[in-house]
User: Which sequence fits this backbone?
């Protein structure tokens, strides 16, 4: 029996090796006959194409790997903001689904059934077309007290420009964090021992705020607030949000929130009824019951499925191609069309998606362990 | 339980059968109902030209989305500049300009489809480039339209490209358009933000709603789009296409580079059309000219006997193209000469209203120059 | 509570959380379906559910205003300002894309085949053929809408007749199914197994239409079905491989699953051309669309592998032990005891995955396939029908939604039938 097993493995390995060798030969032959070889040096060559929004700065004269980085960071920015917003909205929807108010419950139900069952691509295009259609053109841009502007070229809000001392100021803020952590622990201990209200959020955040403010005053040029300006073709300065960014973000948030809402609903209902009744017996208001007893237990169970939704959201940023938002896939496709080396670029794409997914899972894993009840298998 | 396992096996077998069927059909047939062209092409004796004659129909790969060049306005009938060339080819090879089958094909698949034998000749506003010659295995004929990348804006917005520093410009990704624009603007020290889309519907929506200040693409495409611009949005008069040429896009028909006979024959047709315009032969006068062509270049064009100055004898020229010597008579009677085709579909008689520009004859300041028939 | 809390997520990406989400929903539905207190009078009900307190009343009023506003916008658009002509003209493109018109009979034949089979199945399986009042209402509404669409968009009387004949065909099938009952259950199952190859033969056989010319909604359905049918056996193998004791096989299975699940489908589709090309011998030339189907199949197989793995985990250890005690070999144990139970419990997850795959077929537009959504966008961009983005998007979205929603409802009813979720 064991011999058979071992033999079976050997055969399998041999088959795999043969297939791999075949594929490698085919690949080399195909590349060789086209005069190309597998190499990553093309990433240093000049990109030649422009990217309209980027987190870290980019110009067409930069090398290709900078272009790839721009696409990747754009996608990560959308995903990061999207995850936060989707969670908030999703929890609200989930709670609304369980509301005692019939109207609210039905509205949430319709929301979930509509946005879950429509393809995400349809939704992405819908938000983009709806945004572009509905918002006035740049010539009739809407102005909010002269501080912010909105048009179908995007929104321009007051932004923060880092000054010369920004780095030092950041150090101030970082230094404040351990102090805040100490304050937190101190107040928690006081609360446990003496039963006094801890106000720990208020105090620790207050510490950070005071130190940050002190740093700003002392340093002089930590950062300044920059107001956007309106010109004939667009905005300059300030924090600009392009309509493409807004469209993909809104679509992802609305779509993912529908799924998260169902997860939250299911996990809340999975909390045993006894817990809710006990909380009620203790005299807690429905809001307190939800916040202090039900939700914490529900979220514990909900973390693995919600993690999956986060991963989906991250992967779904790839739909940005439909609205021209320069994300990872969009930029990679442009790179391949302009510079070839499809396999190498694809390997970068795979690596980035897998790597970031891994990061998200690791973080959620840590969260899961942190909230696991002692005695659970973790 | 037995039946369940049996059903699973059955399902598995059929799934594999389906996949196998899907693959094998493509390998043997290679595309839409081709009934043995591939087999014939593999045989060295029959060339594609012979096949076309045997078949009695010429299949042309065309566009059906570009007004003026290859466009189906929703009726199922495709018309345009390239279509007339397809007709010209059919008239030359088969004597019947309507013995054509138009195969609409999109940009990404056109070369694979040509290699698969889905159609015989590609007349689809295709730019002649070195890599398409080499890697894609296409043999191009004489350029039938010297196009170039251009920029279109709303009238009144800008007087010239130099005023467009810092503007938003709509482009399609995956084309050389992006690169060319970046180079052009960079050379003039102008900045721009590319609003890049993969597909035209979104791009068009963005331009119409004012998201971009300009739209860049081939001049031929822009002219076609402009010609159809709806009146509610201002109609064609509300848009201007700048004269500046951002890049060269020479458009030419193409065939598989293994089909030399077909290439030479069809190339002669294109040249013949230009030559006809040079010599003043039109669809109106071709019949009477054919009756009395003289013995010079016109006679050579129309396949009539030509005076050989050395021998003093008159004999028709046999260029060995594999088609009848007087093919140009059929061609010109069917579609006219180059100038007529141009004006009819993209020039003054059409909605595009393009100037001849560099597509004029070399004697008129353009660069269309026919190879002599000798 | 240690028994109730599930294990934390593995560090990798092969998570079976999709199954967990479904489990929640099943539990939630079971709880909600439980009979509640006796129904109150309408007045009491309104007071309880809508106006039970100041906050609640405010919420009700605010929601009411919101709903009315939304309804007004939508209805005024649909019935007053929308230009539905664009849908009428483009309908053939939406349904079959650039499928050659004279070969359209193949699509009709396939559609009728499926409709009749579906009708038969409903007839055979329905406990009583008299549907409830609610079902009749929904059915009538759907038929009315479909009828109106058919009436306004059909180009020829033939098309009108064929489309109108679909409902009677389904009803006829249901009646016949009811007549013969469980006697035709076996042949019916065989028929369902054979229907997909049959459709392939109808469409591809007799000098048929190659995949590169498929388009419209037809493409979405076929692509989704190809995906599921072809990926199911592979997914099964992957799940078994994942649980194998032989490390090489296990690692290979895990690697495959992680790779295909971790990268978005769009990326796979776009790069399918390049990747598959380089890995196949040069003599083998397969059309781009088949390469795309291939990667979509692998993608789907990875998900199915995870679903089946979840199902296998759910089979109690006692079953394995009992099978061993009976002296069954591994293959027999799997085939006769374990897999049937495992697969049965995964049916809702499978259907959910099929719905996802169906929605994902809209992504084929990234490789220039003209599916329903792409056809709708294209007709909205034709300069003749300027500004009809909303109409076309709504129409395409509605069709996708209708299919996905019906399938998810059917899946829920199936769960109740199979008693899944009750353990």
Assistant:
């Amino acid at each position: 029996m064991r011999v058979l097993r071992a033999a079976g493995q050997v055969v399998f390995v041999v088959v795999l090796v043969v297939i791999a060798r075949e594929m490698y030969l085919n690949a080399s032959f195909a590349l060789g006959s086209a005069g190309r070889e597998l190499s990553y040096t093309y990433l240093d060559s000049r990109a030649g194409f422009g990217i309209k929004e980027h987190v870290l700065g980019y110009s067409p004269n930069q090398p290709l790997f900078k272009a790839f980085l721009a696409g990747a960071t754009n996608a990560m920015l959308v995903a990061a903001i999207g995850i936060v917003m989707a969670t908030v909205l999703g929890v609200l929807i989930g709670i609304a689904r369980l509301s005692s108010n019939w109207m609210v419950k039905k509205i949430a139900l319709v929301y979930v059934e509509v946005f879950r069952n429509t393809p995400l691509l349809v939704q992405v295009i819908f938000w983009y077309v709806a945004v572009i259609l509905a918002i006035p053109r740049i010539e009739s841009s809407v102005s909010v007290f002269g501080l912010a502007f909105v048009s179908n070229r995007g929104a321009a809000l007051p932004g923060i420009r880092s000054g010369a001392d920004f780095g030092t100021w950041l150090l101030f803020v970082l230094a404040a964090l351990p102090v805040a952590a100490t304050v937190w622990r101190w107040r928690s201990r006081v609360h446990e021992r003496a039963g006094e209200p801890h106000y720990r959020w208020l105090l620790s955040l207050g510490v950070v705020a005071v130190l940050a403010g002190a740093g700003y005053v002392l340093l002089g040029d930590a950062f300044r607030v920059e107001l956007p300006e309106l010109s004939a073709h667009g905005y300059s300065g300030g924090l600009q949000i392009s309509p493409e960014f807004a469209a993909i973000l809104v679509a992802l948030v609305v779509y993912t929130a529908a799924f998260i809402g169902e997860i939250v609903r299911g996990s809340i209902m999975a909390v045993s009824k006894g817990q809710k009744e006990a909380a009620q017996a203790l005299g807690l208001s429905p809001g307190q019951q939800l916040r202090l007893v039900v939700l914490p237990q529900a979220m514990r169970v909900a973390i693995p499925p919600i993690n999956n939704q986060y991963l989906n959201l991250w992967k779904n940023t790839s739909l940005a191609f439909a609205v021209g938002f320069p994300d990872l896939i969009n930029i990679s496709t442009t790179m391949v069309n302009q510079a070839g080396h499809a396999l190498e670029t694809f390997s970068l794409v795979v690596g980035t998606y897998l790597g970031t997914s891994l990061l998200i899972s690791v973080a959620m894993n840590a969260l899961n362990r942190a909230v696991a009840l002692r005695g659970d298998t973790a | 339980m037995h039946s369940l396992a049996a059903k699973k096996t059955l399902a598995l077998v059929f799934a594999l059968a389906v996949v196998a069927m899907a693959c094998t059909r493509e390998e043997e047939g290679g595309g839409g109902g081709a009934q043995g062209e591939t087999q014939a092409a593999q045989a060295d004796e029959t060339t594609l030209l012979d096949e076309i004659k045997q078949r009695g129909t010429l299949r042309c790969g065309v566009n059906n989305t570009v007004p003026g060049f290859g466009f189906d306005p929703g009726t199922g009938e495709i018309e345009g500049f390239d279509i007339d060339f397809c007709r010209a080819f059919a008239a030359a090879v088969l004597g019947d300009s309507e013995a054509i089958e138009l195969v609409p094909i999109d940009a990404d698949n056109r070369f694979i489809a040509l290699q698969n034998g889905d159609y015989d000749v590609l007349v689809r506003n295709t730019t002649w480039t070195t890599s398409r010659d080499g890697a894609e295995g296409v043999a191009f004929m004489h350029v039938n339209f010297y196009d170039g990348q251009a920029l279109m804006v709303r009238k009144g917005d800008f007087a010239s490209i130099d005023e467009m520093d810092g503007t938003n410009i709509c482009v399609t990704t995956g084309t050389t358009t992006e690169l060319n624009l970046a180079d052009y603007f960079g050379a003039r020290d102008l900045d721009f933000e590319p609003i890049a889309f993969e597909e035209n519907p979104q791009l068009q929506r963005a331009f119409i709603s004012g998201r971009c200040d300009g739209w860049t693409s081939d001049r031929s495409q822009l002219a076609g789009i402009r010609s159809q611009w709806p009146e509610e949005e201002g109609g064609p008069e509300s848009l201007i296409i700048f004269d500046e040429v951002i890049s060269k896009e020479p458009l030419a028909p193409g065939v598989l580079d293994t089909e030399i006979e077909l290439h030479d024959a069809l190339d002669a047709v294109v040249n013949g059309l230009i030559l006809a315009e040079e010599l003043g032969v039109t669809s109106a006068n071709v019949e009477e000219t054919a009756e009395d062509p003289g013995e010079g270049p016109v006679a050579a064009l129309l396949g009539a006997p030509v005076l050989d100055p050395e021998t003093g004898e008159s004999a028709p020229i046999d260029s060995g193209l594999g088609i009848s010597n007087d093919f140009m008579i059929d061609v010109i009677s069917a579609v006219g000469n180059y100038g007529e085709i141009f004006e009819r579909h993209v020039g003054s008689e059409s909605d595009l209203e393009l100037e001849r520009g560099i597509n004029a004859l070399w004697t008129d300041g353009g660069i269309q120059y026919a190879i002599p028939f000798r | 509570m240690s028994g109730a809390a599930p294990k934390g997520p593995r560090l990798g990406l092969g998570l079976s959380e999709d199954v967990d989400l479904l489990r929640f929903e099943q539990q939630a539905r079971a709880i909600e379906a439980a009979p509640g207190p006796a129904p109150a009078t309408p007045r009491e009900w309104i007071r309880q559910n809508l106006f039970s307190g100041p906050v609640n009343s405010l919420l009700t009023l605010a929601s009411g205003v919101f709903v009315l506003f939304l309804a007004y916008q939508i209805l005024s658009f649909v019935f007053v300002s929308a230009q539905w002509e664009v849908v009428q003209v483009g309908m053939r493109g939406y349904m079959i894309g650039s499928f050659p018109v004279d070969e359209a009979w193949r699509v009709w034949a396939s559609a009728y085949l499926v409709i009749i089979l579906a009708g038969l199945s409903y007839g055979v399986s329905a406990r009583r053929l008299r549907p409830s009042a609610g079902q009749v209402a929904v059915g009538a509404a759907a038929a009315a809408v479909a009828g109106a669409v058919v009436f306004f968009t059909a180009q020829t009387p033939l098309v009108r007749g064929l489309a109108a004949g679909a409902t009677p065909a389904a009803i006829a099938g249901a009646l016949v199914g009811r007549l013969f009952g469980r006697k035709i259950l076996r042949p019916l199952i065989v028929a369902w197994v054979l229907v997909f190859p049959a459709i392939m033969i109808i469409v591809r056989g007799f000098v048929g239409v190659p995949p590169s010319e498929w388009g419209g909604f037809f493409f979405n359905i076929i692509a989704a079905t190809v995906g599921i049918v072809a990926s199911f056996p592979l997914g099964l193998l992957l799940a078994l491989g994942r649980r194998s004791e032989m490390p090489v096989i296990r690692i290979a299975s895990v690697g495959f699953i992680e790779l295909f699940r971790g990268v978005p489908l769009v990326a796979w589709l776009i790069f399918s051309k390049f990747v598959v090309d380089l890995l196949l011998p040069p003599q083998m030339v397969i059309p781009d669309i088949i390469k795309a189907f291939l990667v979509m199949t692998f993608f789907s197989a990875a998900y199915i592998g995870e679903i089946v793995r979840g199902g296998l985990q759910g089979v109690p250890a006692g079953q394995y032990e009992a099978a061993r005690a009976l002296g069954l070999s591994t293959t027999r144990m799997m085939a006769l005891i374990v897999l049937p139970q495992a697969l049965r419990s995964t049916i809702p997850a499978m259907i959910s995955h099929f719905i996802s795959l169906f929605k994902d077929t809209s992504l084929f537009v990234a490789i220039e396939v003209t599916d329903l959504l792409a056809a709708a966008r294209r007709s909205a961009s034709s300069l003749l029908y300027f500004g009809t983005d909303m109409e076309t998007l709504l129409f395409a979205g509605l069709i996708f939604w209708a299919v996905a929603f019906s399938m998810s409802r059917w899946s829920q009813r199936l769960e109740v039938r199979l008693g899944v979720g009750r353990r």
